[in-house]
Amino acid sequence: MPEYSYWIIAGLALVIAEFMVSGLVVIFFGVAALVVGSLKYLGLLDDTVWELTLFAVISLLSLVFVRRFLNDKLMGKERARTGEEDSAGLIGQRATVVAPFTNGSGSVTYRGARWQAQSSQTLEAGQIVRITQHDGLWLTVEPWTDTSD
Length: 149
Hints:
Blueprint: H1 3-21, H2 26-41, H3 48-75, E1 94-97, E2 105-110, E3 113-118, E4 128-135, E5 138-143
Parallel strand pairs: 3-5
Antiparallel strand pairs: 1-2, 1-4, 2-3, 4-5
Helix pairs in contact: 1-2, 2-3
């Protein structure tokens, strides 16, 4: 078997191994091996020292520079949560008070689901309220006013 085929086989094995390992690391070694194997096949490389050096340089450079770019594109970036974000889309929505609030807490219904809620204002059963904050299973509400509609 020709020498270049070892590089090609190793490169393909490393690229396939990336699917099992997942971490966006092994694939760069596989791509480097495929490049070295291709250059060896074309007759541009004939010295083992140069083959290993080129393999190491391509692997490390792509790992350092390309991985950061691909990692952001493929894996996404984490963002710190700011106070006003509401991933459930509840803030600003209308809810209905189920029973009068006592000591600043009670329950409301929103789209057929019952939620624990708190408010700094007195609220009566059947009153329409606006959701102002969503924190886990708790909602903070205030009376609905037409002026803020």
